[in-house]
Amino acid sequence: MAEDKTPEGPAFRMPDPALVTRTMSEVAERGQRIVTDFLKRQSGSATTPDPFNIGGAFLEMTTRLMANPTQLVQAQLGFWQDYLTLWQNTARRMLGEEAAPVIAEDPRDRRFKDEAWRENEVFDFIKQSYLLSARFFQNVVGGVDGLDQKTAQKVDFYTRQFVDAMSPSNFLLTNPEVLRRTAETGGENLLKGLSHLLADLERGKGKLRIRMTDDSKFRIGENIAVTPGKVVYRNDLMQLIQYAPTTETVLKRPLVIFPPWINKFYILDLRPKNSFVRWAVEQGHTVFVVSWVNPDETLAEKGFEDYMREGVYGALEAIERATGEKQVNAIGYCLGGTLLATTLAHMAAKRDTRIKSATYFVTMTDFEEAGELGVFIDEEQLHSLEEKMQQRGYLEGAEMATTFNMLRANDLIWSFVVNNYLMGQEPFPFDLLYWNDDSTRMPAKMHSFYLRRMYQQNDLVKPGAIELLGQKIDLRKIKVPSYLISTREDHIAPWKSTYRATQIYSGPVRFVLAASGHIAGVVNPPDSGKYSHWVNEQLPPDPEQWFKGATELAGSWWPDWHRWVTALGKEQVPARQPGSAALPPIEDAPGSYVKVMATD
């Protein structure tokens, strides 16, 4: 009698009984501890049954859909016609005939990379059934008339979350790659996966915190964030790092970078070969970087004004003490760019001219079309979030990380579920994913202000609607030369939204669009030879018109930025070593603030 085999795979062998026993013992012991920790964390906290306000959005969608049943019937007829064709084609394939697929996956979709999804009739049928169903659901919810934009966006987003979760690649019995590995290992992959699941629940203290990379392979300051420098100043909110020069002379005007405090600054200094910080130093800039604190409950009352005062103004004062220079070039990344623009408007009201140029990395100042993050911004969700922050004094880093991961769920959630729990494999060491998992907390007062006044009410773009540090904020008063770099596939700061700033600032503006997304499009050194960027000297009101008239250039945008910023001031001075007699170094870069984890 022939051995039973899985499709495309070897004979199944029994798992090691000792491993099974050991794993089950661990499940009992560790599971009890996880539940205990989780219940302790829930003690005294309010539980909202629908914190994302999903039910209301889908109820409205269903009501609108039922008002036009013809639309639903037509969609169902089309779906069943496609499904019937799929049945017929599958039957033909099983009889040895050729049959074209009814629907094909996107070539970039890594969920179906295994050949069995195409070569094995059963798995090809499962895959195409899923793709047809996914298209049906998304077309139905996306075609409902009468929904307001925010409700439609929320319904579409959470439908996609459901569709992604139900992919056959996420389940043992419908993933040929997992079945093959289960047969090869005798099920030991599933036992290892269960152990990984327990470890991730322990990391999250009862909440699932999926491990994306082997974090034991990385040490901040040892093999990431290693560009030499010194911390020369610090206060409650930040440490200021001055990097050591590598050239005999440097540009007279220092360069200061304000990264977002939603993430950590070392995305700009991951490795020597892709470090923007190191590259800027090599081009002759005296580089300063703000390293934000990972706040705890003692900083709950720190607001946006404090980030202006202690962050931007604090850095400017420290740089003058360290170098003797009053004027700087400034870069703001994402939320750091929003902070920079807000502070520049404040400085314009006071006639403070210390920042001579501003560069904005993927920065929104007009939040009217905020992309998919907008699905998390409504009154019900903000109220629920503020209740949590009021109890703790901050937004937990894991919650912020989950929000961003949901924007790319297949890549940042489900691929790791399959790899870690079903395949039973260790995650691959990857510095970018280590950084992505190194989340930060957000002070309650600041985060509430940011979400309500900027995301929900879009007040930053309204002249005088926001008053900070005694001045009404009017972005139109910003007259310094501005360089805006956005990325074409950005899911966090959509480029058509960031482009709106070109019509707001009063000074000269250069807008450049890079290929790829929020991180890869920005962190793209010239030596990588990757991607491209688009330039256009004209700035029409319509971003699509700008793109139609733009010229595509191969490679990184970094050299374009360097030419732009040096054209504003080419004077050189002898290279400056970190610190000065007035501002001696405190500790080596990257400092201690960046090493504080959200779980500490």
From TrEMBL:
Transmembrane segments: none
Pfam family, one: PhaC_N
Residue ranges of domain AB hydrolase-1 in the record: 282-524
Cytoplasm in keyword set: yes
Gene Ontology MF terms in the entry: acyltransferase activity
Name of protein: Class I poly(R)-hydroxyalkanoic acid synthase
BP terms from Gene Ontology: poly-hydroxybutyrate biosynthetic process
GO cellular component, one term: cytoplasm
The gene coding this protein: phaC
NCBIfam families, sorted: PHA_synth_I
Domain Poly-beta-hydroxybutyrate polymerase N-terminal: 108-280
Highest taxon, organism lineage: Bacteria
Keywords of this entry: Acyltransferase, Cytoplasm, Transferase
Cell compartments where the protein resides: Cytoplasm
Gene3D superfamilies noted in UniProt: alpha/beta hydrolase
InterPro entries: AB_hydrolase_1, AB_hydrolase_fold, PHA/PHB_synthase, PHA_synth_I, PhaC_N
Keyword Cell inner membrane: no
